[in-house]
Specification:
Largest sheet: none
Radius of gyration: 19 Å
Number of strands: 0
Shape: globular
Strand content: under 5%
Mean pLDDT: 86
Number of domains: 1
Distance between the termini: 25 Å
Length: 258
């Protein structure tokens, strides 16, 4: 893992350049351009805020913000997984022609989506204040929760991007799994709506303490549950180590497979 960090550091300018290019090209040629960074989550917020409270009789207090502070990190997570899956194949020309740490490709996808999340905070903070939420000093824990989310997301992204080079059906499978995962994470509902035995099983999902952590510091103004976040960090770290191992193993044949 130390070697990977050294390589990434040595090629940090390339990483920055790729992230900048992705951010610039993502909405290039569209009418709203960069504003889509805010419009997409806002549209999802409007749809979910109408469907779940009224059609399904969800009486959660300040439901739009309950949903919003959880939906945005989920978009970061799910978008990273889906986009990074094809990142090596998408960068086939680079992989075949020049040497660089291949890990840069999935890493740049995760970093790009992280930047999009950070930009979305421009909307989150004013929205929280306008709906009567008091921001406290516990908001300073946000970088810690983001780091845990980043490690877990990157680990899965490395695994998926490496496997996809050899197994092209994986992209479709990931889309289905992410959709199922969404409904097994307390984003549109609190985990308390599930029966106790099912809720206990769902709580092993690492995204549960992560999403709850975002709600704790942003919506409720309280310190996150460090015990559950430690569990999420441990899982994220293990997944990252496994991801690096699998990526390194498959990396040797990337050029041949592509």
């Amino acid at each position: 893992m130390i070697n990977e960090l050294k390589e990434i550091y040595n090629y940090r300018q390339m990483l920055v350049s790729v992230v900048r290019k992705d951010l610039r090209s993502r909405y290039k040629g569209s009418f709203l351009g960069f504003l889509w960074t805010f419009v997409n989550p806002l549209l999802q917020l409007v749809i979910y805020s109408i469907v779940f409270p009224y059609l399904l009789r969800n009486n959660q207090e300040n439901y739009p913000m309950f949903l919003f502070v959880a939906l945005l990190p989920w978009i970061f997570f799910s978008s990273s997984l889906q986009s990074s899956t094809s990142s090596i194949v998408g960068g086939a020309n680079l992989v075949k022609k020049i040497y660089f740490p291949r890990i840069i490709l999935p890493l740049s996808v995760v970093c790009t989506n992280l930047m999009n999340y950070l930009y979305s905070l421009i909307i989150v903070f004013p929205a929280l204040l306008l709906t009567g939420v008091t921001l406290t000093l516990n908001i300073l824990w946000l970088p810690v929760i983001l780091l845990i989310t980043f490690l877990f997301t990157l680990g899965l992204s490395l695994i998926l991007s490496a496997l996809y080079v050899r197994f092209r059906d994986l992209e479709h499978i990931v889309g289905i799994l992410v959709m199922v995962w969404f409904y097994l994470t307390p984003i549109v509902f609190g985990i308390e709506i599930f029966p106790a035995d099912i809720a206990e099983i769902i709580s092993y999902n690492p995204m549960v303490p992560i999403i709850n952590g975002f709600r704790d510091i942003l919506l409720y103004g309280q310190s996150p549950d460090w015990a559950s976040l430690s569990y999420a960090f441990l899982i994220g770290f293990i997944v990252l180590i496994i991801g690096i191992f699998i990526f390194r193993k498959f990396e040797r044949t990337f050029a041949e497979e592509l």
